[in-house]
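Good morning C.,

I know you're traveling, so I'll keep this short. The sequence:
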Amino acid sequence: MNVEALAPDASARSQLHAALPALFTGLRRVPDPDLALNNLERFNKAVLDPRFLLGLFRENPRILHLLLTIFGSSQFLSDILVRHPQLFE
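The tokens, ready to paste straight into the viewer:
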């Protein structure tokens, strides 16, 4: 998984840059960081506006931590969220 894949354009890269500290902190706390990153990339591709998602992570690291916990703990739940990202609300 390439962290840069989370940010497809310059605007998204600035959002990602601001969210990186929370992302790296969250990854240290999950059981399987590689699985979490892979599922996060899949989820990011499934949402309508990745820039909005990255901005949400920057503004509310708790949301990012919750997603990383799911993505790094349960492939079953991760697959559901990737297929239906609106369920995360």
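Safe travels,
E.
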